[in-house]
């Protein structure tokens, strides 16, 4: 994802204040072999909270984002994934690494969403900016930073969007896994997602390593989520490429955890990108979203999200790539497809 300070771009558009994009991340960093897979882990019982499975990203820290309550009225969406929490330079979480958790516009937005009958999960990480996984020197310290965010908003769900150097370093990958295991222990019932880039055939070697580390650590993660865009080349439609990537993800999670096919599907998810992505010539259409929706409904995926609500509108004169989709569309056309997903 690409967002001014913590975004998910991938290649091009990263100039100004970007928009998400799950770049295929570089080679595995620190050479630290993943532990062998453990005995089968009992599937986590994700809280069946209405609307949580369809929580598109909205980035409130830059540009001209839509009021979340306006989006709710226009689409019926109840949940949002708000991005991004980053390091303030140390092991301390702030919005974009600079805005305090309490007392500002971000907290006000969350209160307005809840007052309108909705709720939020918070995303930690993104493509750019200082990452807590790197700035916190231990799993316990990182878990403490995550806990500050959970406590600030009494969160029911937390998304770790692990990208770039945080993703490519094996030591940091292990730290994130171990920190989330602490979080799950201290917050019974909290839903956790780990979101990462992918190839058209599923997670690359780094992504598979991360999943194996989660299984080996006994992390009952609710959703291993891929961002199927910025592929650097693919065959067929983006919807078909996404299905292929999800099939590969399901196989990786099934292998690492020893899940049945059904349990593996229920522990994976997708976070797409609407319209033109960061990669020239790559476009995700509403037809592609309907393909993804059908797959999610068939297999009961843990999550169907996308980057981002900010982009879910046609471009006007001078609009940049993180504020509109780049394709002809009606307002919130992509969100209206995603909100149909109920888990």
Describe the fold and architecture.
- This protein has 343 residues and is α/β, with parallel strands linked by helices.
- The protein has helices spanning 68-75, 105-115, 132-135, 139-153, 164-168, 170-186, 205-217, 238-257, 261-265, 286-299, 333-338; strands spanning 57-59, 79-87, 93-95, 119-125, 157-161, 191-197, 223-227, 268-273, 275-276, 283-284, 303-307.
- β1, α1 and β2 (79-87) form a beta-alpha-beta unit.
- Mean pLDDT is 89; it is low at 2-40 and 42-47.
What's this model, at a glance?
The chain has 343 residues and is of the alpha/beta class. Helices cover 34% and strands 16% of the residues. Strands 1, 2, 3, 4, 5, 6, 7, 8 and 11 form a nine-stranded mixed sheet that branches. Strands 9-10 form a two-stranded antiparallel sheet.
Write out key terms for the chains shown:
343 residues; alpha/beta; 16% strand; globular
Bin the strand percentage. 15-25%
- Stretches where pLDDT falls below 50 for ≥5 residues? 2-40, 42-47
- Give the count of helical stretches: 11
Helical percentage = 25-40%
Secondary structure blueprint with pairings:
Layout: E1 57-59, H1 68-75, E2 79-87, E3 93-95, H2 105-115, E4 119-125, H3 132-135, H4 139-153, E5 157-161, H5 164-168, H6 170-186, E6 191-197, H7 205-217, E7 223-227, H8 238-257, H9 261-265, E8 268-273, E9 275-276, E10 283-284, H10 286-299, E11 303-307, H11 333-338
Helix pairs in contact: 4-6, 6-7, 7-8, 8-10
């Amino acid at each position: 994802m690409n967002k001014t300070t913590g975004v998910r771009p991938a290649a091009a558009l990263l100039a100004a204040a970007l928009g998400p994009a799950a770049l295929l991340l570089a080679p595995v960093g620190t050479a630290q072999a993943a532990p062998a897979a453990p005995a089968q882990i009992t599937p986590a019982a994700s809280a069946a909270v209405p609307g949580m499975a369809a929580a598109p990203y909205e980035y409130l820290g830059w540009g001209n984002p839509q009021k979340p309550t306006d989006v709710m009225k226009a689409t019926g969406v109840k949940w949002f994934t708000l991005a991004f929490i980053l390091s303030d330079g140390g092991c301390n979480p702030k919005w974009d690494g600079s805005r305090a958790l309490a007392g500002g516009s971000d907290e006000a937005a969350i209160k307005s969403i809840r007052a309108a009958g909705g709720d939020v999960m918070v995303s930690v990480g993104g493509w750019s900016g200082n990452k807590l996984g790197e700035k916190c020197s231990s799993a316990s310290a990182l878990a403490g930073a995550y806990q500050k965010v959970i406590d600030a908003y009494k969160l029911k769900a937390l998304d770790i969007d692990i990208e770039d150097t945080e993703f490519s370093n094996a030591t940091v990958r292990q730290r994130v896994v171990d920190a989330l295991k602490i979080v799950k222990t201290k917050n019974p019932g909290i839903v956790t997602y780990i979101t990462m880039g992918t190839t058209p055939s599923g997670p690359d070697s780094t992504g598979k390593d991360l999943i194996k580390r989660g299984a080996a650590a006994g992390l009952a993660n609710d959703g291993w989520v891929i961002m199927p865009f910025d592929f650097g080349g693919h065959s067929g439609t983006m919807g078909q490429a996404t299905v292929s990537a999800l099939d590969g993800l399901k196989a990786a999670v099934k292998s690492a955890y020893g899940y049945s096919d059904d349990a593996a599907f229920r522990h994976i998810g997708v976070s797409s990108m609407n319209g033109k992505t960061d990669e020239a010539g790559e476009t995700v259409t509403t037809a592609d979203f309907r393909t993804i929706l059908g797959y999610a409904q068939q297999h009961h995926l843990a999550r169907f999200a996308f980057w981002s609500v900010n982009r879910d509108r046609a471009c006007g004169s001078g609009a940049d790539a993180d504020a509109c989709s780049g394709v002809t569309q009606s307002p919130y056309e992509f969100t209206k497809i995603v909100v149909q997903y109920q888990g």
